[in-house]
Write a structure and sequence with these properties.
The complex is a heterodimer of chains A (428) and B (171). In chain A, 43% of the residues lie in helices and 18% in strands. Chain A is an alpha+beta fold and 428 residues long. The relative contact order of chain A is 0.20. Classes of the chains: A alpha+beta (428), B alpha/beta (171).
């Protein structure tokens, strides 16, 4: 099959968030073209928020994405608070950290168990797992134990795991009851053995796609998703407000999602970048119990994004349990400021990587908004590695090539809803 | 083991943030093992790669309709489904995905080249502007208690054992 010519068109990659496809063209055994197309229709959120009161904006932009809505909410709150000089209380910061941990556990859980695990077990779907097989039976039950623990933590602190209603500018409008916290502690404890087993499963997974690319994430004095400096694997460390000039937007004519380079090169954000750059900051119990898995990092194997997500689930369980066992939460007023205008840049780590929200505010109305999502940042890297997957598998049947392509794209855990929120930048 | 009759179900997403899909996968934390016995997931891209769009008892459809291609796909789903249910705010009301319908002319002009390039429809529409909708589950994301109640009604309607576990959620 080495000198074959063929076209391959995957219209809808399954088991990802949103709709994306890949077109491949091979002529006489040479890969001519691999195009990754993000095909969700744009919804124009950054246009729609212009002229809206700042109080309405975080809940609206949360609707960019279902699965990581709470990340958009928190990035938006951070940008607005920075813009208006509002300083959230230490309790608010802790509650946001727990809300984020819940998001990571639930969202990574969905990706690893429901989207990625069928590839590892050679199955089409979690629906095909064999309950009579002890290994598959265990993983099936673990799926829901882990997801539920993350879901419950988000419900306790945010009111809902998707589009959480309680977080707002300056703090929270509701506070968890002792009963909520008791339930969360119990469910997080139950999820811990499952997370350890999941790490083992992805440690033993032999999938490999090497890419000595640039990795970018926030780093801080502890393993922090909400605060820190933007850091690269080439040792650049800058404040979030200095990040924008490094990101260059590239419009791909066949993709509805905008893509980005970092200093003019393809790069990668997400769990793999975070663990590569900050594994020594993970919770001590996570470092102890995931020690052999952590030996793989820093890694240049794209598929280790899955292993990195599994390690992050364990970290979020350990971090949350520590906080919930030692802290109490009581109602407090929202932090406020009388400032009505300013500019704010909020960068946080969403489950899939660096999430950038920036707003100009005047008379407490948003006058300009820019949002850059992780999947847009990973888009060029995904396409580059998809091409290599085709080249590596040219001697295989088309069906195998298609499966290998889907596995590679899935390893990035792309979120097409996010990538097609659309941003319109006026280049001045 | 006898092969009991199952509800032939499809889950489809159009233009939206897919929040209801996420709530659907969260409901599985409680209901997966029960659903597996009662439901034949014919088409659910979030759960499986090998999907079939053939005769369905029920199609759950989230998202608004942003293009002619999506409208045709929705009509195909309708023609193959005995019941079609609109799931979540975008499917039921169009919004927030339909927010560009309300843009002032100068904002519309800014996005027009994108609409042209990717063949968006003139307006974003809710499902019942294109096909008959048998029931709705509103909410942004969908109201999960209403969804569970409706699913149970459908199971009864199609002569399948109804769900016995609690029909309320805390999320």
């Amino acid at each position: 099959m080495h000198n074959q010519s063929f076209d391959l068109s995957l219209k809808e990659i399954s088991k990802i968030e949103g709709t994306a496809g890949i077109d491949v063209k091979v002529t006489d055994g040479k890969v001519e073209d691999v195009k990754l197309k993000l095909t969700d229709y744009r919804r124009f959120y950054t246009n729609a928020v212009r002229g809206k009161p700042v109080n309405a904006v975080p809940q609206l932009v949360a609707r960019i994405c279902g699965t990581c809505s709470n990340a958009h909410l928190l990035a938006s709150l951070k940008a607005i608070e920075l813009g208006l000089n509002i300083t959230p209380s230490p309790q608010t910061q802790l509650m946001r950290r727990l809300l984020t941990n819940g998001l990571m556990i639930r969202d990574h859980g969905l990706h690893l168990y429901v989207f990625a695990l069928p590839d590892v077990l050679g199955k089409d779907s979690i629906l095909d797992f064999d309950e009579a097989n002890p290994h598959e039976h265990q993983l099936l039950h673990d799926t829901f134990t882990v997801k539920q623990a993350g879901n419950q933590l988000s419900v306790a602190f945010g009111g809902r795991s998707v589009h959480a209603p309680y977080p707002t500018i300056g703090g929270f409008t509701h506070f968890p009851s002792n009963q909520d916290i008791k339930i969360s502690i119990k469910q997080l404890e139950e999820a811990r053995p499952a997370a350890l087993f999941l790490i083992k499963v992805f440690t033993n997974c032999s999938f490999n796609q090497e890419d000595k690319t640039l990795y970018v994430s926030l780093t801080h004095d502890h393993y922090d998703f909400l605060d820190g400096l933007v850091t690269t694997s080439t040792s650049l460390k800058i404040s979030p407000s200095e990040a924008r000039p490094h990101l260059n937007r590239i419009d791909i004519p066949y993709s509805q999602g905008a893509s980005y380079t970092w200093d003019n090169q393809a790069f990668m954000v997400g769990a793999l970048s975070r663990i590569n750059l900050a594994k020594t900051k993970l919770h001590p119990s996570t470092q102890r119990d995931a020690a052999s898995a952590l030996n793989f990092f820093p890694s240049t194997n794209i598929f280790h994004n899955n292993l990195a997500q599994a390690i992050e689930i364990l970290h979020c369980l350990d971090d949350s349990l520590d906080i919930l066992r030692s802290q109490t939460f009581s109602p407090e007023p929202l932090a406020q400021s009388s400032q009505a205008e300013g500019q704010g840049t909020g960068i946080i780590e969403a489950p899939r990587g660096l999430l950038y929200h920036a707003y100009d505010i005047k008379d407490r109305l948003v006058t300009k908004a820019e949002i850059i999502v992780p999947t847009g940042q990973n888009q060029l890297s995904m396409e580059k590695n998809a091409r290599q997957v085709v080249e590596k598998n040219l001697d295989q049947e088309k069906e195998i090539i298609a499966l290998e392509l889907e596995k590679c794209i899935r390893a990035y855990d792309p979120c097409i809803s996010c990538a097609t929120h659309f941003l319109k930048i006026r280049w001045l | 083991m006898s092969q009991a009759k199952k509800l032939r179900l499809g889950w489809f997403s159009f233009t939206c943030c897919e929040d209801s899909t996420i709530m659907f996968t969260e409901l599985m934390n409680e209901h997966f093992f029960e659903w597996k016995k009662l439901i034949d997931f014919r088409h659910a891209r979030v759960l499986k790669a090998k999907n079939t769009l053939d005769e369905l008892d029920v199609a759950f459809v989230e998202g608004a309709i942003a293009s002619d291609i999506q409208a045709e796909k929705l009509k195909e789903i309708r023609s193959k489904s005995k019941k079609l249910i609109a799931i979540g705010s975008c499917a039921v009301t169009g919004f927030p995905s339909a927010q560009r319908n309300l843009f002032p002319p100068e904002m519309k002009a800014e996005i027009q080249h994108i609409l042209d390039q990717f063949h968006h429809a003139e307006k974003i529409r809710r499902l019942d502007e294109i096909v008959p909708v048998d029931a709705i589950v509103p909410g942004c994301p969908m109201d999960t208690d209403k969804f569970l109640k409706l699913l149970n009604q459908l199971l009864i309607e199609f002569d399948i054992t109804p769900i016995t576990s609690p029909l309320t959620t805390n999320g």
